[in-house]
Amino acid sequence: MKASRILLVEDERRVADFLARGLRAEGYAVDLAHTGPEGLDLARGGGHSAILLDVMLPGMDGRDICRRLRADGDTTPVMMLTALDSLEDKVDGFSYGADDYLPKPFAFAELLARLAALIRRSRIVATPPSPQRRVFVAAGLELDPDALTVACGKRRVALTSKEFALLELLAGAPGQAVSRERILSEVWGLAEDPLTNVVDVYVHRLRRKLQEAGDAAPVIATVRGHGYRLLEERDLAPE
């Protein structure tokens, strides 16, 4: 079986060498970059199962790298590694499109466990749906948690793990308002509202991707002062 290839972007060379050696010892293939621009170039080259991304990098901030990749439509899982460990820092990282956030210092065993979980959640299964696959339909959408895709009709669109989790939550209660607090708790595991726009950023991305999925796809409506709800076309009020 071909080894999963990891892109590690870390400017502290001792840390980078230690992590790269450890990952290779665990059977991963590792591409290594020490600057932001180098990391972005390697990431855009594709072929990685996951990206381990430091935040404070020379030449380009790690969050900006993540933002650019998501703008390119790249859904490769990204785990941010950083000494910035406040709640606001974590939510900021998520708002740029990161899938996980591991504060330094960390135990290598925890990194391995989180990395394996990221890859497992994001791996796209190329075979068609079968009774064993957990494909389900809600609000006129076909959601595939194994492939992290959503389809409306024949058009299938790839999502990041956080985008999928958010859509899955909204689709599980079609037409019902889902509060921002519940979204933050169930999608990001946050027990309090950090008063950032991370939810709004992801809703904006999902709206754009639902449009790509087809004209008949449901829309995410804002419930002012509360949260969001997923509405099918038949539920929309005529203009």
From TrEMBL:
| DNA-binding region (UniProt annotation) | 133-232
Q: Where is the OmpR/PhoB-type domain?
A: 133-232
What GO biological process terms are annotated to this protein in UniProt? regulation of DNA-templated transcription
Which keywords annotate this record? DNA-binding, Phosphoprotein, Transcription, Transcription regulation, Two-component regulatory system
Q: Which residues form the Response regulatory domain?
A: 5-119
Q: Which GO terms describe its molecular function?
A: phosphorelay response regulator activity; transcription cis-regulatory region binding
Q: Which SMART domains match?
A: REC (SM00448), Trans_reg_C (SM00862)
Q: Which domain of life is it from?
A: Bacteria
Q: Which GO terms describe its cellular component?
A: cytosol; protein-DNA complex
- Pfam families reported in the protein's UniProt record: Response_reg, Trans_reg_C
The record ties this protein, via InterPro entries, to: CheY-like_superfamily, OmpR/PhoB-type_DNA-bd, Sig_transdc_resp-reg_C-effctor, Sig_transdc_resp-reg_receiver, WalR-like, WH-like_DNA-bd_sf
| Alphabetized PANTHER family for the sequence | REGULATOR OF RPOS
Can you say what this protein is called? DNA-binding response regulator
Q: What species was this sequence derived from? A: Falsiroseomonas bella
